[in-house]
Every structure is written in structure tokens, then in C-alpha cells.
Amino acid sequence: MPHEPTPDPLTAPDASAPRALLTVTGADRPGVTAHLFAALASDGDGRPAVEVLDVEQVVVHGHLALGVVVGALGTGQPAEAERELLDHLRRVGREVEAAVGVRVAVESASGPDAPITGGRAHHVIVLGRPVPPEAVAGAAQAIAGAGGNIDAIRRLSDVPVTSFELTVSGAEATALRTALASVAASTGADIAVEQVGIARRSKRLIVLDVDSTLVRGEVIDELAARAGRAAEVARITAAAMNGELDFAESLRARVAVLAGLPEAVLDEVREHLVLTPGARTLIRTLQRLGFRCGIVSGGFTQITDPLAESLGLDFAAANTLEVRGGRLTGGLVGEIVDRPGKARALIRFAEQYGIPLDQTVAVGDGANDLDMLSTAGLGIAFNAKPFVREQAHTALNQPYLDAVLQVLGFTRDEVLDAVP
């Protein structure tokens, strides 16, 4: 069988060799990076003087910040080798400064004061409209308090929400999420934590709740209003979504008050549905990226099936209202899609498309979504009740559903490229 060759230990970086950090700052212009690395490429007699160990570059509003960690390739005593390395890099720095007008700082990156990283890396996404400075400050303090270090920061989006992604190393996931949850609660920003790795970008199926997630409001409340029982049903709905009542029991009680309504009322309610802002952008973007997209609802197929068809979704599951003689009977037909039923539907659709559960995403707001949220590889509580937010993998309290894209790591530019 084919096998990977054993790495040559002679080619691995020498951890004991002197290292140094060059930090380049100034106005960004073409050729700065090229000039720096050309100067690093030789020590003057044609032999390489250093090896490149790490590079990070960002440009913020035309201002360049470039960091390069290099290691010495020469031999000799460590102290002498480090002195020679730093002297060489200072000469390189002066050459680059004179050529392209930037500032180059040189410092040692070896020894006991060198940065130490460890543990699994995580992405911390801070979202808001706007993002208050205290949210960033609080997140940074919480990360440090959890033993983490911020390795990089990038902006994901500026509209409809502002979002930044911090890459964090050295912190344990549970401690990090706990510390950041209190920051989110105190500042009003949303802060999500995702593990760095290919699993984040390997998601391939998303399931959306409908009422108060994909669409604004609750369909059952709209139907009850037409039966003159709005206040009564709204109280039952709120209790069910807060987890105070068994969902199946509460659903039967609410549906019972609809007895006698003409079937045409379903068409009226469906025509007046209002999608949550960003819903179309989220679905279209994920579809262009190859996602299977669908809905799993505790609502009614007479509403959700036409909605799924209009949005071009791959699948839908919901309850079915019983209709006889053109009127609602106040009963249901078939299996009830309750809290465990939603999780079963997610599993069924994932199996249908051959997608592992850890590559699925679920989004919802109520107690009946909790099993679905915990079953998915990533469960997102969207404008959810407090106890739902606490139990989901992450939470969003923005009014825009396409903020889910930033939690998945997509930038605004990638979204614009994906949507025709």
C-alpha cells in the first residue's frame, strides 16, 4: 500500500536555533513584501542567511503591518549566532526602510521570553450593530483570563452587522465559552466560539426553524387571531417556547381553538408571511456553496410546504392540520413534529443526503428546537429565549438571519461573490 515517507529530521526547524521577529509598519504600497524577502534571501555572498518560520500580514485602511519570524541557519555558539542574526536583520531593515519608506523593527524571538502556544486553536467571532469597544476589550480580557492568546484578528463583515474574527490559541473551549458568554451578556454583542479546523468549513446541510426564525412572528398566533382567540393562544405559545409546557400538549390545545376556521384562512396567513431580514441571502449563499437547505417546523405543512417551494429548499417537515369540508377541524393528521421529532427530522434528512451529523447546522429559537440544536454539528440559537441560548452551541441576537454566515466563517466579500 502507498505510504507517506518518513520526514527527514535534518530538514525540520531547529527549535534551539536563535530566532528573531521583524515587524514592518507603514503606508502600504506595491513591492514592500517583495523587497523585504529579497533582502532576506541572501547574506551577500549568495548563501541563505535565515529560514522563514512564520509570516502574518494585514492592511488596515492603507496601513501595513507585516510580521516575519526567521531562524538562523548558521552554526556557532547560541549567543554569537543570535548576535549575528540580529545584526544581519538590522542591516536588512535599514535597506528596506531606505528603499520603500517603511519602518522595520527587529527583536529577539528566542529564549524563555518567546511566545508559547498550546492547546487547540479557536475562532472567536464578535458581532454587533455596532460592535462597542467594550465588547472587544471584554473579549480580549476574557481570552487572556482563560489562558488564551489572540494570534490574529480579521474583519468578516461591515453590513448588515459588523463582525470580527479573532483566532485564539492556548485556551480550553469550555472555559473560553463561559468567559465570553458573560462578556456578551454585559455588552450586548454576540460572541461565538468555533474550533479552528476543516470541520468548520465542511458543513453541508442547514435546518432552519420557521416561526420567529425564518419568518417573523408565529403562524399559530395569526391563525388564532382570525378565530378571535389571539390572547389565549399567545399565552400558550409563549409558555411552550419557554419550555414551561409540553410542546405536543400545547400544540393540540392551540390547534383546538382553530376549529371551524375556513381553509382559505391558511392562504391568507401564508400570503402575509414576512421573511426575517437576511433569510434569502443566507439560503442563496449556502445553496451556491453546495449546502442542502431546509426547514423543520412545529408549524403546519399547509404553510411550510409552499414556503419551502418558493425558496427552492431541499426538504421540509412540519405538522399537518386536519381539514374537512373546507374547514379546520381543530385536529392534526399524522405524527407530531415536536421537540424530539425535530431532531429525528434532522437525522432523517442528513441520512437522506449522506451527510454526517457533524457537518450539519441547525438554527432555532424555542424550547422545542433544543434537541435539534444539540444533535447538529453546530446549533445556533437565533434571537432565542435565555435558557435556549445557554444550551445551544452558540447564539445570535442580531435581527439579521444572514449573520449565521459569519459564524460559519464566511466574509462579506465571499457572500457577495456567492450571490448572483
From TrEMBL:
<comment type="pathway">
    <text>Amino-acid biosynthesis; L-serine biosynthesis; L-serine from 3-phospho-D-glycerate: step 3/3.</text>
</comment>
<dbReference type="Pfam" id="PF12710">
    <property type="entry name" value="HAD"/>
</dbReference>
<dbReference type="Pfam" id="PF21086">
    <property type="entry name" value="ACT_PSP_2"/>
</dbReference>
<keyword id="KW-0378">Hydrolase</keyword>
<dbReference type="InterPro" id="IPR023214">
    <property type="entry name" value="HAD_sf"/>
</dbReference>
<keyword id="KW-0479">Metal-binding</keyword>
<dbReference type="InterPro" id="IPR049148">
    <property type="entry name" value="PSP_ACT"/>
</dbReference>
<protein>
    <recommendedName>
        <fullName>phosphoserine phosphatase</fullName>
        <ecNumber>3.1.3.3</ecNumber>
    </recommendedName>
</protein>
<feature type="domain" description="Phosphoserine phosphatase ACT">
    <location>
        <begin position="121"/>
        <end position="194"/>
    </location>
</feature>
<dbReference type="Pfam" id="PF13740">
    <property type="entry name" value="ACT_6"/>
</dbReference>
<keyword id="KW-0718">Serine biosynthesis</keyword>
<comment type="similarity">
    <text>Belongs to the HAD-like hydrolase superfamily. SerB family.</text>
</comment>
<dbReference type="InterPro" id="IPR004469">
    <property type="entry name" value="PSP"/>
</dbReference>
<keyword id="KW-0028">Amino-acid biosynthesis</keyword>
<dbReference type="GO" id="GO:0016787">
    <property type="term" value="F:hydrolase activity"/>
</dbReference>
<dbReference type="InterPro" id="IPR050582">
    <property type="entry name" value="HAD-like_SerB"/>
</dbReference>
<keyword id="KW-0460">Magnesium</keyword>
<dbReference type="InterPro" id="IPR036412">
    <property type="entry name" value="HAD-like_sf"/>
</dbReference>
